Amino acid sequence: MEKFPLVEIEDLNYTYPGCGEPALRDICLKVLPGEFMLIAGLTGSGKSTLCRAVNGLVPHFYGGKISGNVRVKGISTLEASVGELARYVGLVFQDPEAQLVFEDPEREIAFGLENLAIEPIRGIKRIEEVFSCLRLASLRDRRVTDLSGGEKQKIALASVLVMQPEVIVLDEPTSQLDPVSAEDFLVTLKSLNSELGISVILAEHRLERCFHLADKIVVLHGGRVVFSGTAEDIAKTDHAVGMRLLPPISRLFLEAGYTEIPLNVKEGRMILSGIDGIPNRHKLERPDYSHTGMIGKQEKNSSKAFAEKITERDAAVKVENLWHSYGDGNPSLKGVDADFGFGEVVAIVGENGSGKTTLVKNITGILKPSKGRVILYGRDIAEMNRREIAALCGMVMQNPESHLISKTPEEELRLTCKSAGFSEKETEERVSKTLSTLDIESLRSTPVEEISCGQRELVAIGSVVVRDPDLLILDEPTRGLDSSVKERIASLLARRKSQGKTTIVVTHDLEFVAEFSDRVIMLAEGRIIAQGEMREVLSDSLFYTTQYNRCFRGFASGVVTKADALKVLKEFA
Amino acid sequence: MKIAYKKNDSLFHILHPVSQMIICAAILVLPLLNSNPFASLSALLSVGIIAGSSGVFADWFSWWRFCLFIFVLSVVINAFVSSNGSTVLLKYSGLPVFGRIVVTAEGLFFGASMGLRISSIILVFAFWAVAVDPDRILNLLSPGSSESALLTAMTMRMVPAVAKDSREILEAQAARGIDLDSGGYIKRMNNRVPLLRKLARDFLDRGISLAEAMESRAYGSGPRSRLVSYVFSPADFGVIAVFAAGLVFVIAVSAMKLTSFDFYPSIRVSTQAQGYACFVFFILVSVVFSVFSALWKNSR
Questions:
Q1: Which of A404, A487, A477, A486 is nearest to A446 (CA)?
Q2: 3-class SS at A279?
Q3: Cβ under 8 Å to B: A residues 444-463
Q4: Which residue of B176, B198, B218 is in closest CB contact with A116?
Q5: Across the interface, which of B175, B198, B224 has its CB nearest the CB of A114?
Q6: Per-residue three-class SS string for A466-486
Q7: Residue in B closest to A165 by C-alpha
Q8: Which end of chain B is more exposed for a tag (fewer CB within 10 A), N or C?
Q9: pLDDT digits (tens, 9 = 90+) for B25-48
């Protein structure tokens, strides 16, 4: 018997006001009750617009030209208001900060119910249920401002869930979260789907974490549906966009020529366990780390021991016994010793609040050390002025938006050149070269507001690298970005490396770390708990490692990168 | 200066918003109705003791520099503009703008008293800002004007967000080597124009995102109900009784001029015993409140 769809989209076409090109074209989709649908697609493919079409924000909030039909429980979203649809559809947005109205979590959760004029006796019961269901009791007495990104996003989910919608639509809800919070959020979402039977429509970039959760995957490209089917189906197609969206572990097995494609690490391990000859027998050649000063993760006083060894080689940047405290008096960095060699790409990893950003802000002189010192190309940073530091070192912040103060990418890059005192001729050369290196030449004169999230990240990077600093620091450069943007950042790193310039990357993206970094520094609670060659640090970690390493652990040692894994798989294919 | 509310586990924080309002109002009225420096001192000590017992002393005390500035400004301005008072300390003619100035001991003391008075008023408001949850106050007032209460709540959430945005923008510009402080005053102002434009744009974007999120949760779809309400505890009744009595006491002694203090032509303290009793009453009540606060905390 065919199920009656909860959400039904027929021939949907939509164009934003003032735009020539439609954002959505000929969309036809059905979401069944209790179904978990994943909407995947590259930046600008129309995922967010589709999410907003389901709850009626498109077209009621945005205006624009719309044709076709969107029905939720048989109600046309063109005819019903967003408020009426809110009883059936809950929408969770990308930025947790921008969707919360109140400082008090309880009031925030009550807000939707108050808008629906739910009487107190029923409303309070619902609020208590949601607090209990999402395990939010510990957040009850805290302020929204003091919550982490993951906690804020859970409050946003709770404030939608409390309205008891039949379908929850989420527009890249984990793009601003660290991997642990993202995982936690997705697990919660899946349990709501399986235990309460609530339908979920999830638009996401980080497919490796949610691919296996979905009953149906829809791939959008250029506003069109280019694929619709199960996770297993997408792994079997040879659609270029679909291929790029596959989780790393699936792509690995596909590239190795396997017909059985895993969707997550568990399935990958199950496949490996069935391959003759693999278990516990394959070993990749391990490099000798004795000359690098690498020390084991468990070694006590690791940073101190490392500091003693780094004096044996030259370093572009040295950090010596660095302490930093913010206003509350609690140290965020506790005696960090590290060095960054010429031409190295060094990744700094660790959970949120471990001191990663504080460390790099001290290196750039944005923050002043409470104790200890930073030696930048042979000079103590405390003795350098802002101009001298900027000539050597540039940093791209976590939020690229904070860099973009001009009207167009070209003006943005020119502003940096002007501040550096370059001549007009040199400015033009540098701007053109940087735009071309980052492959954003076509956006040269496009207003910044009109360019996509990933392209904005590239413009922000361009606004710093146009100065060609000897030391470049990138804080979370790949967060929420698709693989095409990551590839461009990776090629920039490779180019800098070949020029002998140092790059520090603060990131949670361990696949990116494995492919492009030479060394890794791991921080926890303001201290370095491990540092050394990338391969040694990542292959020695349980959580802070790549999906390839997790998949091959116990089957082949030393597998960290995709190339390592491919080598092993091809040998036994 | 800390301006954001800080949630804490204290007796003051769990009181009903009405009780919190009465405590602050009673202390505020003390310097507001009286120019007597002892009244200002009493208010200052009282609010300081309650801030300490509420665990927000550091945030509250972060206002001291600003208050010191106000105090010094009051003394200096008064010294230049007031020639009242019989004890002349300095006479000087031919000073640009001011012409002839006469600095008197009484004038200086008046300036200091006014500085203390303004500072104590500021510090009561500072305590209000760091210790009283604006959401709770707005929720309390919302039945009368739900839309303006909501607008105020949203603005209050926006303020720290915009402050964070501006800090991030300044850091990002510094990180790419943009020197905002080069050149003269006009150039420095011009340097900041793109930043202000960016901040305004971000503020607008945030507003649109918030409007979108609110509409998605059915805001504006009809009459609203009110789910979050606060109940009075026995502690509230005690606090309201004592501080309301203090409020009546201070209004009464002020109206009967029992707290008089004359500065000119010479300093004359005409405060009556009842006036002093009122000042001491507030300090004692604050001490008792902090004792109860400590007992409450220990009992948990």
A1: A404
A2: coil
A3: 449, 460, 463
A4: B218
A5: B224
A6: CCCCCEEEEECCCCCCCHHHH
A7: B217
A8: C
A9: 999 999 999 999 999 999 999 999
SS3 category, A56: coil
Residue at token pair 């050369």: A429
Q: Tell me the HSE value of A339 on the side-chain side, using a 13 A CA sphere.
A: 22
Largest pairwise CA distance in chain A = 77
Phi-psi region of B144 (alpha: psi -120 to 50; beta: other; left: phi over 0): alpha
The ipTM assigned to this model is: 0.80
Q: Give the distance, in angstroms, between the CA of residue A543 and the centroid of all CA atoms in the same chain.
A: 17
Contact indicator for A88, B221 with CB cutoff of 8 Å:
no
Q: Where is mean pLDDT largest: B2-6, B81-85, B215-219?
A: B215-219
Q: Which of B106, B113, B39, B105 has its CA nearest to residue B74?
A: B113
Distance CA(A224)–CA(B121), nearest Å, equals 63
Q: Rounded to whole angstroms, how far apart are CA atoms A230 and A235? A: 9
The tokens describing A234, both together, are: 């997408």
Rounded Cα–Cα distance for residues B46 and B25 (Å): 12
Three-state secondary-structure class, residue B30: helix
pTM reported for the whole predicted model: 0.77
Kind and range of the H or E run holding A394: strand A393-396
HSE-up (13 A, CA, CB side) for residue A110: 24
With a CB cutoff of 8 Å and minimum separation 6, the contacts of A291 are none
Q: Is B233 strand, coil or helix?
A: coil
Strand partners, A91: A169
CA neighbor of A56 nearest in space, from A14, A20, A97, A111: A14
Q: Tens of pLDDT along A252-281?
A: 888 888 888 888 888 889 888 887 655 544
Contact call for residues A39 and A220 (beta carbons, < 8 A) = yes
What residues pair up with A219 in beta bridges, in sequence order?
A: A40, A227
Between A and B, how many residue pairs show a Cβ–Cβ distance under 8 A?
185
User: Could you count the other beta carbons within 10 Å of the beta carbon of residue B230?
Assistant: 15
Across A289-299, b (16+ Cβ under 10 Å) vs e yields: eeebbbbebee
Q: Using CA atoms, how far apart are residues A410 and A418, in angstroms rounded to an integer?
A: 12
**Tokens 């040998």, located at residue:** A571
